[in-house]
């Protein structure tokens, strides 16, 4: 999987959070996942299917960061990861993947998106079961971490 | 979503666990999900995209049940939900969805599967973010519970 495939997802998350929550995340260096495990308190997942490829994407947030995004969007912070927060994480997952899909379409890559699923639970781990490479993009902020993980087969 | 769409997933899970682990689960009554939340210690998720529909499926297992399936398959039980267990849950998720896909193709329903993702973490919850109905199928065994949740849009 080349870097041209990774950057649209990175840019798309920064763009979505800046637009929706005026929140600036600091992206770390994307890397091929080996032992590293995506871990968070609330994660959005989405499947992708294209003519030449299929894959999955996850975006995991620390609780503090998810709640700060809600506070900035609604002016009020929920005390816990409630249904409003999981709705927001599902929506962010959709918007980030949709934004990347549009950027990638310009380069001739094509895929359709399934519907998102949101997982919540303290420090859960996410493992993408694919034969293709797994790219992990870490993000930091003073409110906590976020991690995107993207996997595509045959790319 | 009609019952003809649900039964293939139910049958497919029973069949996969009987074949792979000689384990018989007792299916409960499938129901439309309202307040009920799919909860488990390890879950497999997969996205589905078809010409007329898209959706998501999850299969959640209690830790005790996941470990018992491993014991029956390998003759040895892992102490915790390790990589072997998440590999197995990813494989079961693929097999169950693939089995249901074949049954549904006979009825003219068609979809492609994304790659599976496995989540682990004690008592995590799963929320499918879709506008379509969400069907939940509970399964019981003396080793713990399993839950399938299926969501399709436009069906």
Automatic annotation (TrEMBL), chains A, B:
CDD domains: CheX (cd17906). It holds the Pfam family CheX. Gene3D superfamilies: CheC-like. Residues 42-140 form the Chemotaxis phosphatase CheX-like domain. The keyword NAD does not apply. Keywords: Chemotaxis. InterPro entries: CheC-like_sf, CheX-like, CheX-like_dom. GO terms for biological process: chemotaxis. This is Chemotaxis protein CheX. It comes from Agarivorans albus MKT 106.
